[in-house]
């Protein structure tokens, strides 16, 4: 007879079997363990407001988005660029959200959280189905769900495009497994459809065909399947036949065509001149890209000092850091090649490197050198390397089965605390940019946005303080903002001094004319009619056209884009 409080041996064995064997009930519980902690970590965003960085362009200040959800706007979404990208599905997503929830920022945040939860569960399902491992797949999905670097995508309403495109990315990856089991044109058509929808949400998922080739190598093992394979597949994948590499490329031709079309549309959607403002030579762009890879790896392993804006180092790039980063990348690449019998290492590493190529900065389009949001899909490859690698290491040393689960829970708890802390920085614009200023160096963009946030609150003294800091760090427009503020609150002589600072560096004829006219108003209010007349006359004076620069590929691209816009019957004057 069992002693009081003791549990029968059969009950203990049943519980052990539940936690360490595969079953539908266990899978459901693991999904709950994904959803509940992620909800707990991200729940505060329900109370957060819009931020003054792209949320205005994507949602609350865009008359197309806030306007009626009718055929005209839907047609516009598919025939016009949206915020310098061709992503009509994102436009429609924000439009529907505004139509349903108006400008309730909390509800828009909730959409991002729900999409993030769906992405985490989908990742778990795709990995588990492809590899047969529930525990390892769960840990990859949990790292994806709870890593602090992903906060930027989830807590930033404007990044709904990343959430949406990743959803279709994972769906396409799951559909590709279905295709590989029985290759048929209609099944590849489903993959292509999901891929196309992902691209219509954000072009960043353009690397999916490359990822599918990696997926053929591991875990599906359709590629180079001869010889021994110790790549740690939990269950044998039946019904998936190996293919020649040429056949694997040929079957993906429709996907490559879709990728090419989307690349052309994205290029046409770019605003001309966005990359000309920071004309760094290719050597600096390449150096920054190499350094960024290493910085991403560092932030994955030690996620501190995360910020919404990391400025491009430009000519201040430290080349000794670039060479150290390159040495690190070469060392890891050499290791995964030497350990190629563990296929997941090579696949995870190439996933990380390859999916970041569109956003790593080889072509410079803006002032930032890297961004946390670009690691959302890329880090899946790194998480696969870590989870499968640690599991194999533990098995090779015959550690007790309870060691890895305990270590995993400890890591996830630590990440959850760090993520919750990072989420709090997104509560409002002032908090977001104050944190960015604190953790970055001489960040004139952050100073300018922080000043704008204070100005919107009516705290003009704080706004001027940060505009002045931005001007010191190199923001050419900061002095103009200070001049406007001083002009509006009646300190005309101080406003004139800042107008003169703007004129000293301005190369924009339209801006120069505006500043001169404002100076004329200021002098007129001061009673200095002679100076006012001089300013008005200078503002009206015709200025010589600058010398014509040589025609470049960007000029031809802009010309083609303008001709395409002219072919559309819609009145362009109605564009926002």
General description of the model:
The chain is mostly helical and 576 residues long. Helices cover 67% and strands 1% of the residues. The chain is built from 27 helices and two strands. The protein has helices spanning 9-20, 24-42, 55-60, 63-66, 71-79, 88-101, 105-131, 134-146, 151-155, 160-181, 185-201, 208-217, 245-251, 253-269, 282-301, 319-338, 343-355, 375-396, 403-424, 429-439, 444-457, 460-473, 478-488, 492-505, 509-526, 529-540, 553-567, and strands at 310-311, 368-370. It is elongated, with a radius of gyration of 27 Å. The chain starts with 8 loop residues before the first helix and ends in a 9-residue tail after the last helix. The model is unreliable at 1-20, 272-277, 548-553 and 566-576 (pLDDT under 50).
